[in-house]
Design brief:
heterodimer; A: alpha+beta; Alpha-Beta Plaits; 2 domains; eight-stranded mixed beta sheet; seven-stranded mixed beta sheet; 43% helix; globular; B: mainly alpha; three-stranded antiparallel beta sheet; elongated; binds zinc ion; E2-ntca (chain B); E2-Crich (chain B); A/G_cyclase (chain A); Adenylate/guanylate cyclase family protein (chain A)
């Protein structure tokens, strides 16, 4: 299993054929979106622009739960998953609600898009604030009942973004929101560690007068405004579910087993708390650097530009997924915006950390090669690059929440957290290994992948001296085929 | 002569335009013209000051019908590695021998390490400067070139016929020699090689190159304290 140029090229030509159709009107009035129920039941293979408020939330205590006194034991992971499961059960009530909101979560993060009331930005933000407050209270309530610290930090932005759905079948379907609002709300959350609800500059400009107070550059929401918003927009099902979850003393039973390899054979549809997998894996976060800007320019550039952006992101994402799965036997956890999170693992009976990280490094290099082919075949001159973060560690994989077949796919560990953080630390394109991945990697991998430019698959195959490198095969038969540099006398060597 | 090779993924390398010169039983190969797409000279890319390629130890000497095939194989590896060096700025560590006379010592050290089952440990010492053999270098007496504390067991772990550890002062006299001592000598020869090239300009295509540090451009930039 490895990367092959011809195979990648023909795959990419197939991805081009499945590009989501961009709606005839491109920019859909949020009333239309609401009426057609497009956000809650996003049609497959369609992309459109939607205006609304974006709520981005992060459970701040997630990271402290990942290990128990520094050790990522099975018990610590059980507790971590129980924590997420508890919150997902509450959040599930929003997904199933009929308010036309779109809610999505992964790891410790939640992302909601609020499009009603239609055509009224200030009211959409008000509704987003109400939701944010309700989420804060719900987290607190269930956390207290089950003995988990559950502080949540929320960011709110407003604007237009590109919505699209990709994937096939319920378990593999992902909805994307691309563009500034999805991104800025997330950045606001990442910018601090205190609990609270924060509005971006844009949202502050569009919110009702008197809602925001500023002192010494710090914004706070007026409490009377928040109370008013909460009274106006009920989110009753959220309240009801939080009460039910708080009262439910039955704890989920998490049972782990080591999966059969390659990881690509793991089926999320077969995973559940009592049937979870866990082993030493490398988490790979591959992100398209510069994509938010590219989409934002497209959104302002009209329908042709939007079509191009949809095509670029669709083709690249599908291809990165194919590289992960088909070429390296990896398992995609999920797409997050323009980013793909996946895991790879090696080791017949026991985990093999060095080989696992080596596979992840080669996978990253193959992603780079495929990424370049995608831009060539699509013919896009987009100023985008690929940034890949890799971290290694024990990682459980399962599905959480109470939505049966629609349950949320989850892989959560220090490695998943650090892989993402490592990727985010990359400026422009490139590759980086997390601390653990770097320490368990073999020398060649550490030298060429610890940090810096991400090389093509062919160069990586040579420098990591893989069995399939033609030079390796030649040297096996002709060990003297090793170039050197002759002493000063010319015509030697 | 034009050469194209196939890389790991099945992709082709670029077309290398080469000139092969044969004088009696000696063959040399150059880019056509020298410095066309490859550096005109770069030790780290195994291109000699006269532009000829170093495709292996004495690769172009005494070519016969039998050794001609091997010569092609060596050129093949060279072409493949040039493509990787051009993109990544590194030459695959396993596909090169130490420069100059150090090459002979490296081969001797490899034979010695092989005998002791230390093949990969030795490769690590050469390619990355780490591992037990590389760290053993600190215990070498710089004057004698031999290991200090001659009466303790040798670092390389060699034992005698009765499985008793061999002493440091005896080890190098046995069999193919002690890989730690040989590695010390190899490094001396490598340093000598680079000293001999002092004044030679760095081509700037490789990420790590001893000429870069000593080279006129970098040197003045540092002494002036300016970046560019
Ligand atoms: Zn050079
Ligand atoms: Zn020895
Ligand atoms: Zn140089």
């Amino acid at each position: 299993m490895s990367w092959n140029e011809d195979r990648a090229k023909s795959r990419i030509r197939e991805h081009v054929k499945t590009v989501p159709a961009v709606d005839r009107h491109v920019v859909l009035d949020s009333a239309i979106v609401e009426k057609r129920g497009m956000l809650s039941r996003m049609p497959l293979s369609q992309a459109f622009l939607v205006e609304g408020a974006h709520v981005y939330g992060e459970l701040l205590d997630f990271e402290t739960l990942v290990a128990d006194r520094g050790q990522e034991t099975e018990a610590a992971h059980r507790r971590l998953l129980a924590f997420l499961h508890m919150h997902y059960r509450v959040w599930d009530s929003l997904v199933d609600g009929d308010d036309g909101d779109r809610v999505d979560y992964h790891g410790a993060r939640l992302h909601a898009v609020i499009t009603s009331p239609a055509g009224d930005p200030a009211a959409q933000i008000e509704r987003a604030v109400a939701l944010a407050r309700k989420l804060t209270e719900a987290a607190q309530r269930v956390g207290q009942a089950h003995g988990f610290p559950s502080r949540i930090r929320l960011g709110i932005d407003h604007g237009k973004c590109l919505a699209m759905t990709t994937g096939r079948g319920a378990h593999e379907k992902d909805t994307l929101f691309l563009g500034r609002p999805a991104n800025h709300a997330a950045k606001l959350v990442a910018a601090g560690t205190e609990q609270g609800i924060f509005l971006t500059e844009t949202a502050q400009k569009r919110v009702a007068a008197g809602a925001v107070r500023k002192s010494a550059g710090v914004m706070t929401l007026d409490e009377a405004y928040v109370q008013g918003a909460v009274r106006k927009y009920g989110f009753d099902s959220l309240d009801r579910t939080a009460s039910a979850v708080a009262l439910d003393s039955a704890e989920p039973m998490f049972r782990f087993k080591r999966p059969a390899l390659p990881l690509s054979t793991v089926k999320f549809s077969e995973l559940a708390p009592a049937n979870s997998v866990r082993m030493g894996m490398a988490s790979i976060f591959a992100d398209i650097d510069g994509f938010t800007n590219f989409v934002d320019q497209a959104i302002h550039g009209g329908s042709d530009k939007i079509r191009e952006a949809v095509k670029v992101v669709h083709v690249i994402r599908e291809e990165l997924n194919a590289v992960l799965k088909e070429d390296f036997g990896g398992k995609r956890v999920r797409f997050i915006g323009d980013c793909i999170h996946g895991c790879v693992a090696e080791g017949e009976r026991a985990d093999d950390p060095a080989k696992t990280v080596r596979r992840a490094a080669l996978c990253a290099a193959a992603m780079r090669s495929s990424f370049d082919l995608c831009l060539g075949i699509v013919g896009s001159g987009a100023a985008i690059d690929l940034a890949v973060g890799i971290e290694y560690g024990q990682t459980p994989m399962t599905r959480l929440g109470s939505r049966g077949d629609e349950s949320v796919r989850c892989a959560a560990s220090k490695a998943t957290i650090e892989a993402e953080r490592t990727q985010q630390a990359i400026e422009h394109g490139g590759v980086r290994l997390g601390t653990v991945a770097s320490s368990v990697a073999d020398q060649a991998v550490r030298k060429h992948f610890s940090s810096g430019r991400l090389m093509s698959f062919d160069s990586a195959s040579d420098l990591l001296w893989t069995a399939q490198a033609p030079a390796v095969q030649i040297l096996r038969n002709e060990p003297a085929a090793r170039p050197h540099a002759a002493p000063k006398k010319p015509f030697r060597g | 002569m034009d050469v194209v090779a196939t890389r790991s993924s099945g992709a082709f390398t670029r077309v290398f335009e080469l000139r092969v010169v044969q004088v009696a039983d000696q063959i040399a190969v150059f880019e056509r013209p020298v410095g066309g797409t490859l550096p005109a000279c770069c030790p780290e890319r195994h291109i000699n000051p006269d532009g000829s390629f170093c495709i292996g130890l004495r690769a172009g000497d005494g070519i016969t019908g039998a050794s001609a095939t091997a010569w092609w194989e060596k050129l093949h590896v060279f072409i493949l590695c040039q493509e990787t060096a051009a993109e990544a700025g590194f030459w695959p560590g396993e596909a090169q021998l130490s420069h100059g006379e150090a090459a002979e010592i490296e081969l001797a050290a490899e034979r010695a390490a092989d005998q002791l089952g230390l093949q990969s440990v030795y490769r690590e010492a050469v390619a990355f400067g780490s591992g037990p053999i590389a760290s053993g270098l600190a215990k070498i007496n710089q004057k004698t070139g031999m290991l200090r504390n001659g009466r303790s067991a040798c670092i390389c772990g060699r034992t005698d016929r009765h499985r008793r550890p061999l002493l440091r002062r005896e080890c190098h006299r046995c069999g193919q020699g002690c890989p730690v001592v040989l590695e010390h000598w190899r490094r001396i020869k490598v340093a000598e090689y680079w000293r001999g090239l002092r004044g030679q300009a760095c081509c700037g295509t490789m990420r790590e190159c001893p000429l870069k540090k000593a080279g006129p451009t970098d040197g003045t930039a540092i002494s002036r304290g300016t970046g560019a």
